[in-house]
Amino acid sequence: MRSSALDNEETHVYDHRKLGRELGLFDTDPLIGSGLPYWLPDGAIVRHSLEEYIRTAERAAGYQHVYSPVLGKRELYEISGHWAHYTDDMYPPMDIGGEQMVLRPSLCPHHAVMYRSRSHSYRELPLRIAEIGAMYRSELSGVLGGLTRVRAIQLNDAHIFCTLDQVADEVAAALALIGSAYRAMGITGARYRLSLPGAGKKYVAAPDMWQRATEILRQVLDRSGTPYDAVEGEAAFYGPKIDIQVTDHAGRESTLSTVQVDFHQPERFDLHYIGPDGAEHRPIMVHRSIIGSVERAVAHLVEHHGGAFPAWLAPVQVVVLPVSGAQQPDADQLLGRCQGAGLRARVDHSEAGSLGARVRDNRLVPYQLIVGEAEAVSGEAAVRLRDGRRLPARSSDDVIARIRALIEAHDTRLWID
User: Fold this and answer.
1) What digits encode the pLDDT tens for the residues 10-55?
2) Least enclosed by CB within 10 Å: which of 104, 108, 180, 389?
3) By the 8 A CB rule, do 181 and 56 touch?
4) Could you give phi then psi for residue 182, rounded to 5 degrees?
5) Closest CA to 178 of 273, 310, 289, 75
6) CB neighbourhood size of 304 (10 A)
7) Are strands 273-274 and 253-262 parallel, antiparallel or unpaired?
8) H or E stretch at 280
9) Which residue from 45, 152, 108 is spatially nearest to 53, judged by alpha carbons?
10) Rounded distance, CA 170 to CA 125, Å?
């Protein structure tokens, strides 16, 4: 991962647009269009690692993963309420075969249709459906910026269909998942906001629904002892939500994660479950996103870490540095063992420059394994950590095992003795 990204140390405030390009993570092109970034190989690794972390965490929490189409009939969004309350952010319909089709602005209508595709018993609830899926927002050119405001979004989304008695526990569990993810990503300084409705016609007119949903979210936040601000005018059109706010390099605040309580769409889509009394009952729909959009999450991680990602997210996790050409065969052999252990590793051979120069070139890589004459003979490696710590030479098998254990645990620490 060679880069001049950190050559200028005059500031520790990073703009993800500049740093992302310098690190070869993503870029844009006018021929593709504004707000439509493409991911380069190293950026694709970060994105893939993040998505796999989320899927694994969701599976462990009892979520079932699905796929749904990026298009839907206009009627779908009329039923959900998006057409009436969200049209300004949607792309215009396309006439296809006499039907008006729309690029979806949200995944929840698709998941509601999936739920109602078959009958459900109360014994199945809570039913947790998750997807990392594409959605599209008709953003004006003036507000687009890097990965934080884009027109094509990969959203880490999920919808929980549950009974009224289960809602508070599901909201609390979603907040716990978000907290775990933030610890794994090394994100600090997040702020919690209770987003409430404001004045105007943006919101569904159902006072009782809003009051019940708001009370549930307040109770969960108060019970957890989480500090939060209540802000009017920031709710979704169908219900209040808890937003987790982060700040970018310019001091601008944006929402990264969210948990929402929705009484509206289950009614609009006429969703039911069969209760213990044998009668039909209306489920509640909890919307939640652990990291929000993948694009915004990566943008924040780039700025927050300055490109020095936690090891499990780093495009290159280990670089092997032979001191001279004589150790090249040993370095190549060590590389093979690292890769065989599932580590993303490469060799930076001596032809690339002095050892000191290569150490500087690779300073964003979490682990540098240096192989000199003594290490080549003993089968060891001298470990240099990204934070500048130098560890004495030790068995390369031990080094690989320790690195792998930390990465598999999504631990942000570089080394534990």
Assistant:
1) 445 789 999 999 999 999 999 999 999 999 999 999 999 999 999 9
2) 389
3) no
4) -65, -40
5) 289
6) 20
7) unpaired
8) strand 280-281
9) 45
10) 11
Separation of alpha carbons 221 and 231, rounded Å = 14
Strands 380-385 and 390-395 come out as antiparallel
Biggest alpha carbon–alpha carbon distance for the chain: 78
Tokens linked to 399: 């080094």
What tokens were used for 58? 């969701």
Residue 204: which residues within 8 A CB-CB, separation 6 or more? 81, 85, 237, 238, 239, 264
- Report cis status (omega within 30 of 0) of the bond before 37: no
Per-residue model confidence as pLDDT tens digits over 66-114: 999 999 999 999 999 999 888 888 999 999 999 999 999 999 999 999 9
Of 255, 43, 302, 62, nearest in space to 155 by CA = 255
Q: Count of residues for the chain?
A: 417
- Calpha distance 189→203 (Å, rounded): 30
The Cα–Cα gap between 255 and 133 comes to 18
Taking only Cα atoms into account, the Rg of the chain, rounded to an integer number of angstroms, comes to: 24
Element at 298 (helix H, strand E): helix 294-305
